[in-house]
Amino acid sequence: MRGVEAAFAAWYEVEKGRFASEALRQILTEVAPAERRLAASLLYGALRRQSLWKDLIRNRCRRPFHQLAPVTRAALILGTAGLVELRHFVPAVLMNALAMRLRAEKAQGDEPLLHAVLHRVTEDAPRKMEQLRNSAELRDQALLFGIPGWAAAHWSREWGTSETRRLLRLSAMKAYLSLRVDPTRRDELVEALQAAGTRAWASPDLASAVRTASFGFPPGLPGYEEGAVTPMSESSLWVGEAAVSSWSGGAVLDLCAGRGVKTGHLATRLPEATLEAWDLSAGRVHAGAREMARLGVADRVTFREGDALELEPRTPPSLILADVPCSGSGTWSRHPEAKWRLAAEKLEDYAVLQVRLLERAADLVLPGGRVVYSTCSLFREENEKVVAELLGRRKDLVEVPFPFKNSLFRKGRPYGTVIWPGLPWVDGFYAAVLMKRR
Ligand SMILES: C[S@@+](CC[C@H](N)C(=O)[O-])C[C@H]1O[C@@H](n2cnc3c(N)ncnc32)[C@H](O)[C@@H]1O
Known about the structure:
Strand content: 5-15%
CATH topology of the largest domain: Rossmann fold
Number of helices: 17
GO molecular function: RNA binding; RNA methyltransferase activity
CATH superfamily of the largest domain: Vaccinia Virus protein VP39
Helix content: 40-55%
CATH class of the largest domain: Alpha Beta
Bound molecules: S-adenosylmethionine
Order of helices and strands: HHHHHHHHHHEHEEEHEHEHEEHHEHEEEE
Largest sheet: 9 strands, mixed
CATH architecture of the largest domain: 3-Layer(aba) Sandwich
Active site: 376
Family: Belongs to the class I-like SAM-binding methyltransferase superfamily. RsmB/NOP family.
Protein name: Fmu (Sun) domain protein
Number of strands: 13
């Protein structure tokens, strides 16, 4: 499959509700290595600033956008992103590939429209983008950087205008792959990665992290099969490390374990601990159990499917990681499709569930034990406000300081620590460490 064709295939999968990274990983196995980067750049470029591309197209297309055939809409958006943003395309080659796609899907009648609209868009885009860049309106900045207007307005109430402008810029930045490794083997693994053609180097911030210049997950990464390397953002690693350093013996419970990324981190960093990991989704529980086998820790970790509000731990835990479901707004540069699926009203539902899950963790943890609450969100409703509600309600809980310092950390207002998405390997996260009084 050629790169442009792969971008179309992935685009359709994302429209059906799949994660872009997942869809792409599967599709790229059928794409020639030389074309993979092109497919990924085109898909991510189109997704990141989808609202801007649609705005440019709508104002230059005589037919209503939503009435166009799906292939034409996809061709217009991918084409706009490719022509306006990505430098490695020769316009005529891209146009030709898009037109071939229309023909393959029996929409050749739309070829003149495609040519005309893309021609106008590429002519007008630089001026329009300059206008947005110079505008004092937050709405315009949100459009320029591809952030839903409601989210930008929300952030500006929480962070103020100038911080929000920075956040908009950062949310449009390309996210790169970082890897969790055994710190004692880091140099050797960096060498193996480099020998296999992946630009990789040690993270200056975390002893267990390696940074790479690739985005997406290269199949067959050296050390992956044997469990020596695991894709994980540095912010996620900080949260895992905070849980590791909160352990002082006893059983560990990962309340919302997902596919076990942080569970695996805890299990490998705490070789004397036994762990239980829960998740509502059967698919994730299976994936989590497989992940434990890959890491060679399956004998110490029990994955269980069920509702964390109802399950009972087999051993009362002295440490609970509550990495709760959230809007994911801190990971929008890594998963740009997520921002277009989230509605403002959903935040309230998340917050209600988050309070209940944190309360459950507080009930289950042994006196003297700790709960690490975390989200990959940058909305206060899901972060400080959840912790504040619990701390206000329960006198048996107190906050303990976050165990690390970094220039990307900001003090939560008033509780917890916000990890600012200031580098391509660092997503926006929030974490608070709580202790249950004896
Ligand atoms: C942020 S994700 C966890 C990611 C995971 N900790 C990791 O690092 O890979 C939140 C998870 O919570 C799960 N979840 C949602 N509601 C739940 C509930 N009531 N009980 C248990 N798990 C739940 C979701 O299925 C999702 O996998």
